[in-house]
Inverse folding.
DNA sequence: TCAATCAATATTGTAGGACGATTTCCGCTG
DNA sequence: CAGCGGAAATCGTCCTACAATATTGATTGA
C-alpha cells in the first residue's frame, strides 16, 4: 500500500544513481507533484489538500509540505485559508477574463522576442517540435499530455526570446488551472481552432516575423476569449472563498 | 519594521460577501518585514540571510521563517541556494533590462484599465493623492518613503483598474530591488524627470484618457531605460551565483 | 421535526529539537 | 603557496508538542 519511493533516506552509502537525479529538494518535488498533478487531473481546482493526507501520500514531513504550499500559494496555484488549509485555486469567470487580459500582453511580448531571436536551426527545430507536439496531443484528446505540451510550448517561446524575467512573471501555472477547468467541455470546433493558433504562432516565430507573431498571439487570445464566452455558466464556481 | 496587526474578529455571524479572513500569520509578518526592510534599506540586495540570525532577530521559529523565505523566493525577492542559504536577490544589468521590458506592457495595461475605470471622485482623489505623495517623498529625498509611495502608486493604479490578476503578476517587489540598487546614485535630473512621469500618468488616468495613460507609461519607461543606460557599470554586480 | 447551542474532535499554526548532508573555514603538510 | 583534511557552521528534513481555530456531532428547547 505504501508508495515504495520512500527510500533514499536511511541509505548509508550514496548510490550514484540517486546522486544523478537528486538535484531537487523534497520541497521542490512536492511542488512539482502538485502542479503536474493538476495538469494530469489528479488534483482538480477546488480540491482540499489536508496536510496529513498529502504528507502520507507523498511520504514527506509536514514542514516540507508547508514550505511547498507556501511556494505554490505565491504562484497562485493553491489558496491558503488560515486554519482551514490549502485548496487548489479555482478561477471564476471574472478571474479568468482578468487572467487572459493580463497574460495576453506578456504572451505577445514573448512571441515578438522569440521571433526576433529565432536565429538558429536548433531554435527553429525546437519551436516547431513544440508546436507539433501540441497538435498531436490535442488531436488525440490526451488531456494531460496536451496540457504538458502546451506548457512546454510557452516555455520554449519564452526561452527562445531570452528574457528571463518573463519566465518568472508569466502566469502559466494559473492558466493551467483554467485549462484544467475548461478543457474537458469545450467543443470540437473550439479545440481545433485553438490548436491551429499555436501552429500559427510558431510559424510566425520561425519566419522571424515579430509583427506577425504578435498578431498571431492576439488572434489566439481573441479565440480563447470567444471560447470562454460560449462556455456554460456552470463551469465557473460562484465566488466562494477558496 | 512595524507589524501590522489587524485582528478583525468575525465572531459568529457569517457575512455573505467575500470580505473574509485577514488575520496576520507569523509567516506573513516575516515576509512583510523583509520586503519593507528592502525598501527601507535595512536589507540590501546581495545580503545573506542566515536562518539563525533572522529567527533570533524577529523572534520566530525556523519553520515559519523557511515558509516565508519560500514565499519570497517565489516572488523573486530572495534567492535560495541549496545548502548555502537565502540571499536578497540582486539584479544585474541584463535582468534589469529584462525586467523593465516585462513590466512595461503590464504597467501600460494597468494604466489603460485605470483610466477606463476611474469613474468616481473617490478614485480620482486616491489617484491624485498617490501621485502627490510620490512627489513629496521624492523631493525630500526620503528614499525609504519614496519607495513605499511608489509602490502605493502602482497598487492604486492596479486597484482602480480592477484586474485582480494583474496585481498578482506585476513584479513590483522585483522592481523595488532595482530601485533599491539605483535610487541612491541617480542624478538629480534623472530623479526629477522620473517623478514627473508619475504625475503625468496620474493626470491621464484622472482625465479618463486610456490612450494618453498608455503613452505616459511608455514615456516613463523610456526615461527609466535612459537612466539605466547612463548608470555607472559598477552599480550592477557581475552575475554570480546568488 | 427542526433549529439553535454547546461540547468533542480534527486540522492548522508555531515552536523547538534532532541529525544527516553540504558548504565554508582554517590550519597543516609537502 | 597549492593542495589536503578535518572542524565548524549552516542548511535540509524529519519529528514531537501544544495552542489556536474550524468543523463536526450531540444535546436541548420550541
Amino acid at each position: 500500500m505504501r508508495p515504495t519511493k520512500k527510500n533514499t533516506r536511511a541509505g548509508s552509502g550514496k548510490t550514484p544513481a540517486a546522486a544523478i537525479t537528486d538535484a531537487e529538494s523534497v520541497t521542490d518535488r512536492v511542488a512539482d507533484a502538485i502542479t503536474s498533478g493538476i495538469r494530469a487531473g489528479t488534483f482538480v481546482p477546488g480540491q482540499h489538500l489536508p496536510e496529513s493526507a498529502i504528507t502520507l501520500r507523498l511520504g514527506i514531513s509536514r514542514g516540507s509540505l508547508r514550505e511547498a504550499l507556501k511556494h505554490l500559494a505565491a504562484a497562485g496555484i493553491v489558496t491558503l485559508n488560515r486554519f482551514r488549509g490549502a485548496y487548489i485555486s479555482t478561477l471564476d469567470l471574472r478571474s479568468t477574463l482578468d487572467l487572459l487580459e493580463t497574460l495576453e500582453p506578456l504572451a505577445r511580448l514573448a512571441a515578438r522576442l522569440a521571433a526576433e531571436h529565432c536565429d538558429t536551426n536548433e531554435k527553429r527545430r525546437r519551436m516547431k517540435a513544440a508546436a507539433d507536439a501540441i497538435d498531436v496531443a490535442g488531436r488525440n484528446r490526451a488531456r494531460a499530455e496536451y496540457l504538458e505540451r502546451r506548457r512546454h510550448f510557452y516555455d520554449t517561446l519564452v526561452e527562445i526570446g531570452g528574457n528571463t524575467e518573463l519566465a518568472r512573471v508569466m502566469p502559466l501555472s494559473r492558466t493551467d488551472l483554467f485549462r484544467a477547468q475548461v478543457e474537458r467541455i469545450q467543443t470540437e470546433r473550439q479545440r481545433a481552432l485553438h490548436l491551429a493558433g499555436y501552429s500559427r504562432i510558431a510559424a510566425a516565430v520561425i519566419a522571424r516575423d515579430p509583427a506577425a507573431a504578435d498578431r498571431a498571439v492576439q488572434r489566439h487570445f481573441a479565440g480563447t476569449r470567444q471560447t470562454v464566452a460560449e462556455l456554460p455558466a456552470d463551469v465557473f464556481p460562484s465566488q466562494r472563498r477558496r
Summary: The longest strand of chain B covers residues 78-81. Residues 50-52, 66, 81-85 of chain B lie near DNA strand D (CB under 10 Å from a C1'). The two ends of chain B are 25 Å apart (CA to CA). Chain B touches chain A at residues 18, 20-21, 23, 25, 27, 63, 66-68, 70-71, 73-76, 82, 94-95, 98-99, 101-102, 105-106, 108-109, 163-166, 168-169, 171, 174 (CB under 8 Å).
